[in-house]
Amino acid sequence: MQITETREIINRPVELRNKILVLFIGLLLITFKSCSNGEVYFRYHQINKGIWYRDSVLTFSMDSIKFNPLRRHDFTIELTTADIYPYKDIWLHVEHNLNDSVYRCDTLHSRLADDYNKWLGSGTGGLHQLSLPFKSSVALDTSRVYVLKINQLVNNNPLKGIEKVGIKVVEY
């Protein structure tokens, strides 16, 4: 057997391993891309010890460079509550500059549990995740920074049982 034949035999498993590795990485990237479902922004603010004070404003600043101006965008407020949350609903105050450079204020009232005290959304282990629709079919451009500010308007101050509040933006 010649030396070149021996090298070819030795290199075959290495080449096969490299091809399998490239295929695996490609499939992994495709999986991650398909799981995003068009998400272009997703951020959470952790609420310290699950206690949200009325004057605690959560600010989400979104760089517009990530947005495609040829597409429309849906905004949801992502809310994670604990079992100790005392109500079936929540009132939120949302200040934003999504429509133009002038800030607008919206009051959002959302149910978190049904009439039988069953939590809406999903969750396990005492935590419940719910996506609250906020704005849909919004056209965004790449010339400015978009800001959303959220605070709670519930009578209890502080409000217990709110673990995380987030914003998700999906383009379609």
Looking at the structure, what is the overall shape?
Answer: extended
**Major beta sheet, strand line-up:** 1-10-4-7
Order of helices and strands: HEEEEEEEEEE
Helix/sheet category: alpha+beta
Class of the largest domain in CATH? Answer: Mainly Beta
- Integer average pLDDT: 87
Q: C-alpha Rg, in Å? A: 24 Å
Number of helices: 1
Key attributes of the depicted protein:
172 residues; alpha+beta; Jelly Rolls; 2 domains; four-stranded antiparallel sheet; 1 helix; 10 strands; 19% helix; extended
Task: Please provide a written account of the structure.
A hairpin with a 7-residue loop joins β5 and β6 (104-111). The strands form three sheets. The chain has a four-stranded antiparallel beta sheet, with no helix packed on it. It is α+β, with helices and mostly antiparallel strands. The radius of gyration is 24 Å and the shape is extended. It has one helix and ten strands. The model has no long low-confidence stretch (mean pLDDT 87). The chain has two domains: 1-35; 38-171, Jelly Rolls (Sandwich), CATH 2.60.120. The longest helix is centred in the first third of the chain and has 33 residues, at 3-35. It has one helix at residues 3-35, and strands at residues 39-46, 51-52, 58-63, 72-82, 89-96, 104-111, 127-139, 145-152, 159-160, 162-171.
